[in-house]
Amino acid sequence: MSIAHGIRTLGVLGAGQMGTGIALVAALRAKVPVLLHDRSSEQITKGLSLVDKLLAKDVAKGRLTDEQAKEARDRISVVGGDVGIKGLRDVDMVVEAVSENLSLKQKIFTSFVAELKPEAILASNTSSISITKIAASALPANVSSASEEGKKIAGRVVGLHFFNPVPVMKLVELISALQTTPETLDRARAFAIACGKEVTTSKDVPGFVSNALLMPFINEAIMCLEKGTATREDIDTTLRLGMNHPMGPLQLADFIGLDTCLAIQQTLYEGTRDSKYRPSILLERMVDAQWYGRKNGKGFYEYNN
Ligand code: 3HC
Question: Where does the secretion signal sit in this chain (predicted)?
Fold first, then answer.
């Protein structure tokens, strides 16, 4: 079988909403075996039960046979415990989907890319962090960024930005670091297409295209609430019914996670020094209060998880 992307086994780092969704579309649509890793066994259990629920729904709706669902589920295995991320060493591509935190990502990437097979790709699902910075952190301490080896290692790092909920949203945004090779970009694009997604390409700027546009919009809605311009319901209804958005901006912020929105907005603000990206005080305070939105039951709205 000829596979343009050359991905015969995929590793996914992080079994949160995004990592689990990526594992599912890879197993179901691209039909590749997936090794899913998370430090937390509780998170793995949650992730796999979401996968089971979504596959069962597809079977109930007649979109998949029992057998197709079982085949997809069987393609996903868990790597955890003492093996850690080293258990992903033999895969052809790793998609990193851990929290939106540069030092955490750098810690994971340092030396890890060098341990992978020479042709393996390391893709980050970051929403806003510089892929160029992440690629630079992939080099072991004794390898210079200007050396042939350094260029080869960093050239295998790329941004592959999926959207939540991954099984539903049709887009993947592809981001090239300064170091990314054209071959890495082509293979990552082919893989996203095999997962059933349309692909757009963005330069490596803070927030890329998607979040550079979405986050000021969400932030402006939070400032409307902060100023008392309208109630949360009226802000959301205005955008839902007036502009046909599937969710209002405050609902969407809760859905993405207020901690994630703040982290992205901080990256945008620090990366551009443009005041239009300054996060609102209300968002900062809500995150201080650990009101993270839908994921922990309290954001602009309340949820029974
Ligand atoms: N995981 C998987 N599938 C889900 C899901 C989830 N978390 N939530 C909903 N779905 C599925 C449902 O099962 C249903 O599937 P079906 O048609 O096969 O039955 C379908 O989505 C529609 O769901 P519902 O009928 O329950 O509800 P809605 O019609 O209101 O749709 C929604 C839910 C798809 C989430 C819709 O409200 C929507 O599109 N919202 C906007 C989402 C969005 O903008 N996402 C991008 C966020 S930005 C991002 O991710 C980037 C990051 O960098 C911040």
Answer: none
Ligand 1 pocket, residue 163 CB under 6 Å: yes
Contact call for residues 100 and 264 (beta carbons, < 8 A): yes
Give the tens place of pLDDT for each residue, 257-288: 999 999 999 999 999 999 999 999 999 999 99
113 vs 250: which has the higher pLDDT: 250
Q: Which CATH superfamily is domain 211-296 in?
A: N-(1-d-carboxylethyl)-l-norvaline Dehydrogenase; domain 2 (1.10.1040.10)
What distance in angstroms lies between residue 71's CA and the mean position of ligand 1's atoms?
24
* CA pair distance 225, 128, nearest whole angstrom: 25
Q: What is the pTM of this model?
A: 0.95
Supply the DSSP symbol for 293. Answer: B
The ipTM value here is 0.96
d(CA 215, CA 239): 15
226 noted as active-site residue:
no
Q: Where in the chain is CATH 1.10.1040.10? A: 211-296
The CATH superfamily label for domain 10-203 reads NAD(P)-binding Rossmann-like Domain (3.40.50.720)
Specify the pLDDT at position 109.
83
Give the separation between CA 279 and CA 251, rounded to whole angstroms: 17
Question: What is the per-residue pLDDT across 22-73, written as a single tens digit (0 to 9) for each?
Answer: 999 999 999 999 999 998 999 999 999 999 999 999 999 999 999 999 999 9
Q: How far, in Å, CA of 180 to CA of 201, rounded?
A: 13
Residue nearest to atom 14 of ligand 1 (CA): 168
Per-residue pLDDT reduced to its tens digit, 170-201: 999 999 999 999 999 999 999 999 999 999 99
Q: Would you say 127 is a known binding-site residue?
A: yes
